[in-house]
Amino acid sequence: MYVLNDMHMLPYPHLFVYNVQVTTVRLLATQTPDHGVPDTEDNDIISPDFLNRNPRNLERMGLGRKERGWKTTWPRKECWHRCHFVKSNRYVTAYIQHHNGHIVASASSFEWPIRKHLYSTSDVSASENIGRVLAQRCLEAGIYFMEFDMVPEKLESETVQRFQQAMVDGGMMLSEPRRIYEYKHLFKSTDYDAEDYNTKEEEIK
Length: 205
Fold this sequence. Notes:
Blueprint: H1 57-61, E1 81-87, E2 92-98, E3 103-108, H2 112-115, H3 124-141, H4 152-155, H5 158-169, H6 195-204
Antiparallel strand pairs: 1-2, 2-3
Helix pairs in contact: 3-5
């Protein structure tokens, strides 16, 4: 039998023995009181305030309002989104502008995450990569089609053509569909008083 108070008498002096005190904790099971059946009468009340969390839904369906009456102006204002391409001596910038003036997506070779992968920030390769990045950002923002109008002389440039091709390859459509004015045919209603409907009901019975 070893004496614990004298560490030299232990066979292994480098080992220490500690007094361990065990404490028992008892957990009391509690139960939440039953408040009965919840009241669901207020669930049928319609809130007077409506918040549209997807304001571009009508535009994607082709039902959104477009500006009209600007036939003599250029570029045309009858669109939902317009793609702008700006090239300077140092950088290439492209952005998507809503008809209300807000910029919803943009990409530029001035951005460091893009610029660090480019050999030049203003050559043809930079324009193509800006088109790829902008197309990806448009898809993430829920934009799939837009108008892209430029001067015919600039459209013949290889820089603009490579940018256009990159946008198309990225899933963009550089033209918008026509607005749907008569959309009642999209929602077909059933006339229960019609003779054809009553005849079908009798045949089923």
